[in-house]
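Class prep. Write one:
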Amino acid sequence: MSGYNNILVGLDLSDESSQVLTRAQQIAACTGAQLTLAHIIEPLTFAYGGDIPMDLSEVQEQLQSQAKEQLGKSAQELGIPQDRQHVVLGQPATEIHRLAEESGCDLIVIGSHGRHGLALLLGSTANGVLHGAGCDVLAVRVHTPDE
């Protein structure tokens, strides 16, 4: 079996994202793979069910702008070109699947917080990505500073 060639790294841009990025870098270094970074922003109307009687488009644009800047900083440190940086509006698992397929990725690397109980029953992005991916998925167990 040959190594991976194209790795899509799904980042939530939290402080723990660096753990996911480090693991993806290690794999890329061992296999000579290219990294593609992605951050998916759920539309605010999804989060609030469209029940807020105000225009959220300006807030949504600010969120996207901040995400692009933050993702760009991580990408710049790794020398990842802008065409391999994606900030997308949509449902995270669906958009990660789409980006992986469009980019010809053979591995998706994402973080997993190891939720238990009710949070596990409600599902997670990592679970959604795992089920339905057309390639291998690595869920990196991330740890918060208090763990």
Summary: The CA atoms of residues 56 and 127 lie 29 Å apart. Residues 116-122 have pLDDT under 50 and may be disordered. The longest helix spans residues 57-78.
